[in-house]
Amino acid sequence: MPRPRSGQASDRRDPEHRSTWRAETLLALSAGILPALVFLACHRALIDDSYITLGFAREVALHGHWGLISSRVSNTATSPLNVLVLAAITLVVRNPVAAAGVAQVCAAASTAVLLGRVLAARGLPRWPALVAVVVTVLNPIVVSSTGLESALAVALIAALLAATVAGRAVVFGALAALLVLTRGDLVVLPAVLALGSRALWPRWRRMLGAAAAVVLPWAAWSWWFLGSAVPDTLLIKMDFGGWPKLGRDWFFADGLVLYLRMYPLATTISLISVVAGLVTLAGFAARWLRPVRRLPRLRVPAAAPTSPFALLALAGIVHWGVFSLLGVAPYHWYYAPLIATLGSWVSACVAAVWHRRPLPAAGLAVAFTAPVLVFLVTLGTSWQVMPITTNWGLPGQYRAIGTAVGRTVGAAGVATPGEVGTIAYYCDCQISDSFSDRALVLPMIEQARFGSGLAARLWRLNYARAPHRLEPVPTVYQMSTGSTAAGHTAAWPVFSPWNPGVVAFITLDGPLR
Q1: 430: which strand partners?
Q2: Are 100 and 233 within one domain?
Q3: Domain contains 194
Q4: Is residue 54 part of a domain?
Q5: Between helices 264-289 and 129-136, what is the axis angle to 10°?
Q6: Which domain range does residue 323 map to?
Q7: Nearest-angstrom CA–CA distance, 231 and 75
Q8: Which residues are CB-contacts of 227 (< 8 A; sequence separation ≥ 6)?
Q9: Assigned domain for 3 exists
């Protein structure tokens, strides 16, 4: 009997359709409750970089302006898609922080529904998708980057996997482009999935066409109006290099070791699903590759119910390897793709075990989720700081500083003390920093585009529309970070778990002559 076409009344009255709708609704509601409660607890503890994104979203939503401050256009939003999503929600809720909470909840619900569909399509139960939500969206590392693009990336990765399993090349291409707009390095994930999914190969032209149709309009607009197709943050982050900490420099490749030393409990809980995913993936590969004798058969078998999840996990590992080669600093939200891909794989393993032996699967689900949930509960209902932070001051301290500085400087320009996001958001003033004032990035731009080789040619193309000269924002006041409050117009003490036992001072001086 032919199936009814999508959208027909008989399709909606079909018992199977109603059952699927009920299951997905229950998944979405179940997946959204805990992230909503966590956001209510943590919304006043957002890290400094989150407020950079929220500042962009506020400017876009309320003023139609792309920048961190109202007097300058800047192209330092690393995730333009996240800014646009938050700006769209802000238009409705009128508050960027609340918009971040709505986005977090929607990302969790979408992740559960999409992974549930993939599990069902592979003949597995849907409910382990909730395990994936707990070990990814509620993972302490991902929660600590609330307001940034991590949760959005998790949802898009789930959508990409669903498109892969369904063999929908056009949808896959569009989602791959959205991942690129979420953060450029995420292109590694769809690249690996596309190479490993033969069902997509016959329609590769349509796939690439769909990707181009999504990403090129934004790239062209950004290049023409913002002065570069690639955000300036790529240059800024590359210029930072590693982080000096605990007597040595740390990079992305070994950054998790640094977090284990600084935040042992939060990081250990964050990595339970990652380690379990690596171990089970190695076992999966060993089982299927043991009888292999010829190189062309060295691939994950499509017949295995969990094979798409295994391929996704492999993509996450490849992403980690590529990012490690770039030598960037170990910002904790950079590890979200590894957590998302291996967390999804772990949930598929739970589903596969449940299919054969429900009781051990339930035990595995509890083993993966209970540590995360118990840890989050122990943090209380009103967090003062995220479980993992690399800021010099607490969010509440920066909020108070930003509010006080805003009252003092008014419309005058003020030079940044270093960490600019929270202070700029609550100051709502003309603060000068490389993230807000492109004039301060021009030396890096000039160095990049006047080099030699292919990289320099690409930088020249990227910055062909960027100005060669730009006067910095005039600063009447100067903020800085020092070890004493003496001799300054105003000073505020700051401290955080990132620098245990150290109290620094954010100072304000001016007007400058």
Answers
A1: 413
A2: yes
A3: yes
A4: yes
A5: 140
A6: 19-378
A7: 5
A8: 73, 75, 438, 463, 465, 466, 467
A9: no
**Statement to judge: residues 220 and 287 lie in one domain:** yes
- Same domain (yes/no): 210, 149: yes
Beta pairing partners, 507: 480, 491
Q: What is the pLDDT along the chain (513 residues), one digit of tens a residue?
A: 344 444 444 455 577 778 888 889 999 999 999 999 999 999 999 999 999 999 999 999 999 999 999 889 999 999 999 999 999 999 999 999 999 999 999 999 999 999 999 999 999 999 999 999 999 999 999 999 999 999 999 999 999 999 999 999 999 999 999 999 999 999 999 999 999 999 999 999 999 999 999 999 999 999 999 999 999 988 887 767 789 999 899 999 999 999 999 999 999 999 999 999 999 999 988 876 665 444 444 343 445 788 999 999 999 999 999 999 988 899 999 999 999 999 999 999 999 999 889 999 999 999 999 999 999 999 999 999 999 999 999 999 999 999 999 999 998 999 988 888 999 999 989 999 999 999 999 988 888 878 778 888 999 999 999 988 889 999 999 999 988 898 898 999 999 999 999 999 999 998 854
Question: Do 281 and 415 lie in a common domain?
Answer: no
Number of domains in the chain: 2
User: What distance in Å separates the CA atoms of residue 415 and residue 421, rounded to the nearest whole number?
Assistant: 13
Residue of 391, 427, 400, 409 whose CA lies nearest to 492:
400
Is 459 within a domain?
Answer: no
